[in-house]
Amino acid sequence: MKNVEKMVCLVDGEHYLPVTKSTIELLNNIEHVDVVAMVFIGGNEKLRTDDPESYAKMMGMPVHFGPDENEIPYDLIVEMIQEYDADVVMDLSDEPVLDYSKRFKIATKVIAEDTIYRGPDFEFQPLTEYEIPEKPSLKILGTGKRIGKTAVSTFTSRLIDENDYEPCVVAMGRGGPEEPEIVRGDEMEITPQFLMEQSDKGVHAASDYWEDALMSRIITIGCRRCGGGMTGDVFMTNMKKGAEIANKLESEFIIFEGSGAAIPPIKTDKHISLIGANQPLLNITNFFGPFRINLADLVILTMCEEPMSSPEKIKAIEEFVSEINPDAKIISTVFRPKPLGDISGKNVLFATTAPDEIKDVLVNHLEENHDCKVVGTTPHLSNRPLLQADIEKYINHADVMLTELKAAAVDVATKDSLEAGLEVVYCDNIPIPIDDKYPDLSESVLEVVDDAIDNFNNKK
């Protein structure tokens, strides 16, 4: 027997009242549906009365009106979900009352209440969140791919490890293992030769969990995922198993790392949300960008420099975040490369996923801070044919291949460089605030960690 769905319906004055009423009756005749209330969201073309009591009497059930007939009553919809403990919000409205942007805004608010938002040809469900962690935890999620989640994760992991929180990372990726895999970054030496051995076995040795283990030197658990929905859910992942494994390890704090715009399906105590300032502004301020931002206890903007973003755009993003999530701290940052080995006095071929437009800034940083000579660069770690062509172009001029551990870093960059007799050094990316006006990044991350621990302890 199906559970009865308590349903709040969104209705408008563009529909003839008898049509709306008969549709409500049709829904109520479905065995597992109970329409508990309606929210009037606007439109008056076919509305014969502006008296809420008369409208409710004609409909034969509670109808709730917002304070301004010309504005969508978003907050009222949330209030009615809470008041009636609704399972579903059914949208019976249409153009011109609702357009695409307004519907996405409704969806963002509805699914945040752990409620389904449904219409004639769509359904948005709340995020899947398994309540598994038996330790304090946070998740790191983003508004898109290639905006620095793993770099922020490794920064966070190192930071809290240095402050004796004993963390581990559970990371999911599109190239993750069939069964969750533990990598003892705190014990083993992860060399280029070792990663080549893993690659030769068919392992995606540049997957995020290897990067976490190499850069942070802590325990990581690698998981896989396939598919990514608009709100961040995935079609398949074994991260639930990964979380169960993390419970049994000696670590005291768990970081769950997202993949692209996909969000770890694990309920955590706190959230850090990343926004790429290089992304189209529309994708941040519309659709489900606001949903991801609203989850955050700390928002980190990345790629905050020309030509990837302008000061005007960065300011606009910061103002938008402050408006919709005023409780979250906002820190705007750039990434700078940090070699894991000594490259001083050497000719360097630098492989990165950063766009070619930022090449000169990164090259100058490496040469000024690490006493090396960059003889060639390639931004094509995620494009194997172009990466291989760049390596062939520069490899005879280099002593060292300096590469991020991403995409084709092992099976192409490392492999070709070792075969040519080059030294291979891997490179981290460090987030750095763009201005002293921002809160201290390390202190802000540790505050989130401390709050996560407090939240966890208060649940006991």
Characterise this structure.
The protein is of the alpha/beta class. It has three domains: 5-124, Rossmann fold; 137-336 and 434-459, P-loop containing nucleotide triphosphate hydrolases (Rossmann fold), CATH 3.40.50.300; 337-430, Response regulator (Rossmann fold). Helix content is 35%, strand content 24%. The chain is built from 15 helices and 19 strands. Strands 7, 8, 9, 10, 11, 12, 13, 14, 15, 16, 17, 18 and 19 form a 13-stranded mixed β-sheet that branches. Strand 16 (347-351), helix 12 (359-370) and strand 17 (373-378) form a beta-alpha-beta unit. The protein is elongated. Its main location: cytoplasm.
CATH topology of the largest domain: Rossmann fold
Q: Which residues sit in consecutive blocks of at least 5 with pLDDT less than 50?
A: none
Overall average residue pLDDT: 93
Whole-number total of structural domains: 3
How large is the radius of gyration?
26 Å
Number of helices: 15
Key descriptive features of the protein:
Rossmann fold, six-stranded mixed sheet, 3 domains, 460 residues, 19 strands, 15 helices
Please provide a brief summary of the model.
The chain is α/β, with parallel strands linked by helices. It contains 15 helices and 19 strands.
SSE arrangement:
Blueprint: E1 5-11, H1 17-28, E2 33-40, H2 52-59, E3 63-65, H3 74-84, E4 88-91, H4 100-111, E5 116-119, E6 122-124, E7 137-142, H5 149-162, E8 167-173, E9 181-184, H6 192-200, H7 208-216, E10 219-226, E11 236-237, H8 239-248, E12 253-257, E13 270-276, H9 281-285, H10 289-294, E14 298-302, H11 311-324, E15 329-339, E16 347-351, H12 359-370, E17 373-378, H13 384-394, E18 400-404, H14 409-419, E19 423-433, H15 441-459
Parallel strand pairs: 1-2, 1-4, 2-3, 4-5, 7-12, 7-13, 8-10, 8-12, 13-14, 14-15, 16-17, 16-18, 18-19
Antiparallel strand pairs: 5-6, 9-10, 10-11, 15-19
GO molecular function: ATP binding; cyclic 2,3-diphosphoglycerate synthetase activity; ligase activity
Function: Catalyzes the formation of cyclic 2,3-diphosphoglycerate (cDPG) by formation of an intramolecular phosphoanhydride bond at the expense of ATP.
Keywords: ATP-binding, Cytoplasm, Ligase, Nucleotide-binding
